[in-house]
Amino acid sequence: MFKKILIANRGEIALRIIRTCKEMGIRTIAVYSTADKNSLHVKFADEAVCIGKPQSVDSYLNMAHIMAAAEITNADAIHPGYGFLAENAKFAKICTDHGIKFIGPTPDMINAMGDKVTAKQTMIAAGVPVVPGVDGLIESIDHAKKAAAEVGYPIILKATAGGGGKGMRVVWAEEEMEKAYETAKVEAAASFKNDGIYMEKFVEEPRHIEIQIAGDQYGNISHLSERDCSIQRRHQKLVEESPSPFMTNDLRNKMGEAAIKAARAINYESVGTIEFLVDKHRNFYFMEMNTRIQVEHCVTEEVINFDLIKEQIKIASGEKVSGKNYFPQMHAIECRINAEDPYNDFRPCPGKITVLHQPGGHGVRVDSHAYAGYVIPPYYDSLIAKLIAVAQTREEAINTMHRALSEYVIEGIKTTIPFHLQLMKNEAFRKGEFTTKFMDSFKMK
Description:
- This protein is of the alpha+beta class.
- The protein folds into 3 domains: 4-103, Rossmann fold (3-Layer(aba) Sandwich); 132-201, ATP-grasp fold, A domain (Dna Ligase, domain 1); 207-441, ATP-grasp fold, B domain (D-amino Acid Aminotransferase, Chain A, domain 1, 2-Layer Sandwich).
- It is built from 15 helices and 22 strands.
- It has an 8-stranded antiparallel beta sheet, with helices on both faces. Strands 3-2-1-4-5 form a 5-stranded parallel beta sheet. Strands 7-6-8 form a 3-stranded antiparallel beta sheet, with helices on one face.
- Helix 2 links the parallel strand 2 and strand 3 (47-52).
- Helix 4 (89-97) packs antiparallel against helix 5 and helix 12 runs antiparallel to helix 13 (417-425).
- The longest helix is centred in the middle third of the chain and has 16 residues, at 177-192.
- It is globular.
- The termini are far apart.
- The mean pLDDT is 96.
């Protein structure tokens, strides 16, 4: 087992990893930008190293600075968390070349799933259902129009190196194609330094349901059931839950088997997530694989009583996974508490938290790096906290979540707490009647 792990991340996920490391008897090293010098992950780690200025490119994306920090502190492993360098094959290779274990999959595995076109072809070969579309990249507007006519409108254009909704456009008719294609390419190039675009049939009224998996270097792969991530805005998740209210036992088994096939196709090692689109008829299609721990891993942990960070570290150290599949024993819901104004189109609201009171009580978990007096910097993701409620049934979990939200006090900045309070009372949400388009018609009161 590792003696020292450097955490190449910040905020609540860095703190989350530190906590598990402490329980495992592993020393931790925090890295931080000058903007994060007062963050809790810096205070709680055994050691801390400043790696640069506030901008991500000068700090959390600066591989040379992170590797220098690892070497001067004698780290024997690096945990990348999520975001930043978590799915960067070049960084994973640099770690390996320097004799430092990257806690995650190999560079080849990251590459195999990082390019969406390659990933789709791999899934087809493995027998995993995929959304109908065009093989390879779209090379021109004329190619796009011809391909769309064959696939049938509506279609969706996606960045091959993409994620988070960047470089993604839905096209309903041919006259919309030229603008959508050019905009998607420009956005993809700006976001990922790769303007490659591919095309798929647009699945209407979809649910976004993902399967958590874990695999080891010996070929053992388990699935740990599903999460429903359908409440999202501009392809950014707001609420996640497990189990999905849309799921049946038959669908769960089929999706679990498909996720294991997908992971086995690249001999996957580490924890990861296979993301699917599920239509209203419960047909499911592979969307992408996240080769890292995810923001919403907490809901899975709560419904099966399982520490996914610990499992990730154990796999990286050479231990085997159990090989058994897990199924939800409880119901958990996670609300992302962001520094955003839900009454003003969710505009980011960085600034100083003047008052903070976090909820507690039975069935409530808060993962957060915030405290009274902490300044939310403007340079990074606006996530302040993840609030998780767990209970025996979905209705009870919703009621627990509403109670917890009503206790949550954050002053000095705007947050998404008012949105979540209204969502927990929304009749369609409470009935489980929602798709990824739910937020298109949701209005704040």
